[in-house]
């Protein structure tokens, strides 16, 4: 009887968890349409567009097709409307294929293969890498790997938008922001 009750409770917990996952993904939107901006591969020109649109800069996601962490970011975090809206408000966001043989134009106006832009110019060795660039094409922040949660990715965006990246590192910023309010007041 106890085993039956435990199984019943476990089944209810599994059903509730499945419903919450379904609810979280019900509002999901395609990140290719709602997170990333369309580009012709001219980042020098995109800086001018970002400036005209009043953005803080450009966010590049260095990724590769077979990267499971890139896929997880796109299907669990970059597809969330609040994430998309926040980042689109502040940045133009683009993908860069670290294995790509397509010629793009870098921030200085020079033609370069995507893979060389990633490896030689931005030292990308693992994916994903999220790199934030100011309106002059200078990298101002870099985060390697998938974030642990949507909240951590949003915190990364806030870290750059607030200008905190100028005075501290992301780990310190995250620790301070995630402390309970009572600990911050002391």
Walk me through the topology:
Blueprint: H1 2-26, H2 31-34, H3 43-52, E1 57-63, H4 68-76, H5 81-90, E2 91-97, E3 103-105, E4 111-113, H6 114-122, E5 129-133, E6 139-144, H7 150-161, H8 170-178, H9 181-185
Parallel strand pairs: 1-2
Antiparallel strand pairs: 1-5, 3-4, 5-6
Helix pairs in contact: 5-7, 7-8
The CATH homologous superfamily of the domain at 29-147 is called Glutaredoxin
- Please state roughly what percent of the residues sit in beta strands, choosing from under 5%, 5-15%, 15-25%, 25-35%, 35-45% or over 45%: 15-25%
> At the first level of CATH, what is the class of the domain at 29-147?
Alpha Beta
Q: Mean pLDDT, as a whole number?
A: 88
Overall shape: globular
Q: Poorly predicted ranges (pLDDT <50, ≥5 residues)?
A: 17-24
Instruction: Return the string of H and E elements.
Output: HHHEHHEEEHEEHHH
CATH topology descriptor of the domain at 29-147: Glutaredoxin
First-residue to last-residue Cα separation: 51 Å
* Count of β-strands: 6
Q: Biggest sheet, in brief?
A: 4 strands, mixed
Structural class: alpha+beta
What is the helix fraction of residues, given as a range? 40-55%
């Amino acid at each position: 009887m106890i085993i039956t009750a435990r199984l019943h409770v476990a089944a209810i917990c599994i059903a509730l968890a499945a419903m919450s996952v379904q609810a979280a993904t019900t509002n999901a939107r395609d990140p290719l349409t709602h997170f990333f901006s369309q580009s012709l591969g001219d980042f020098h020109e995109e800086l001018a567009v970002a400036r005209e649109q009043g953005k803080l800069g450009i966010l590049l996601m260095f990724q590769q097709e077979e990267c499971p962490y890139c896929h997880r970011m796109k299907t669990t975090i970059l597809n969330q409307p609040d994430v998309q809206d926040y980042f689109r408000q502040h940045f133009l966001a683009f993908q860069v294929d670290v294995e790509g043989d397509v010629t793009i134009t870098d921030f200085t106006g020079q033609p370069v293969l995507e893979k060389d832009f990633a490896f030689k110019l931005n030292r990308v060795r693992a994916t994903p890498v999220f790199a934030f660039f100011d309106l002059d094409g200078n990298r101002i922040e870099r985060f390697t790997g998938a974030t642990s949660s949507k909240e951590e990715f949003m915190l990364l965006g806030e870290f750059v938008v607030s200008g905190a990246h100028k005075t501290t590192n992301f780990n310190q910023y995250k620790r301070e922001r995630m402390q309970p309010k009572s600990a911050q007041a002391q």
